[in-house]
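Just wondering, can you check both lines?
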Amino acid sequence: MSLGPAAHAPSWFRADKEMDLLRGEELAAAVHELAFAHQKQAPAFHPPRGMDVRRRIKAIRQIRFVQSVQRTYSFVRRASVAAEAAVDGEALVLRPPSHRYDFLHILAGELAQLAGAKRLPDIRNLVSAILPLLQANTPAERAAYLKRQGIRLPGKLGDGRSDFEDDLHDLGEDLVRGLVEGARGKAPGASPPPAPARPAAPAAPPAPASPLPPIDQVTLTVSAPQGVAPAAASGASGSGAAGRTSVWQPRTPAEMVRDADVGRRGEELVYRMEVERVRAMGRTRSDDDVVWTSQTDPGADHDIRSIGEDGQPIWIEVKTTTGTDGRFDWPRREFEKALREGARYQLWRVYNGASEQPEAKMFPDPIALIKSSRVRLEIGDLRAFVESRAR
């Protein structure tokens, strides 16, 4: 990188105002969240950890203007290319832009690169996402913009938390995200899983399942969790959506249809309960406040979007079993949703879901429960265990 002679700052430039924007705690967290959201659209893009993004942005302590900026790239040979700006140690160095909009656009480009963007398509997409954030005049406006992007900043940023507390929070998120990434493949040197046990003789076809009772004849009882994670068990496996046996057998087409029916039954029961809860809050437009998302989008990262007493959205995932155990498979996209939403995410477990008297437990913020060992997570196949129906 090569910098030209110093230049005068534009007449509209206010150093204190722009540095206050860069120093704001919510900016670094928001940039990281926007980068993480971009990764969903561009899997080849890998943003750095939140604490690293924060430190890179906080390292900028001044803004200087110069007559020219040259970046040096090495491909087959070294080449220097004229640029609008660059980060030089503790300074953001740039050529004087004509208008503040140009300055914010340049700043968005530098923030995109600090958030890990290197390829031009990634930089452009992140600039488009970051620019409205910089144009917002107040923290409330920035929060409103992020909300429209489906992003909720973790915790209460800018409330006097120390750098150590911020880094500790990010480290917790990054550790869990690292576990998710590790679930993509086996660790080097890991022994192959044992071959599934098969019956010595062909098993008799399962008896046809009885039809589910009419929904209006079903009464869902909700009980509070006891706050105890199940211990890891060897050998026997609990029942899933339709009750698995200890000897592995592939699911038949009829059983898979039954599993889907039971899953929808559990979702509908929780959906109806949410509608009644929201109506009891005095909200008359419950159809807008409570949405059964998975009914129209089976691949969504949540089943139901509802609303809390504070008027903010909550996200609900429902896992239903015909038995009483707490084991369920947790798809990666759903796990990441729980990670991102924190206390605004609820995990519901419905037990005896094919009966007329199913029971349910609600586990708020399951990521926090994992960290406090009240929910057990098996990272090998991202399978989670909440507590069983009764002890």
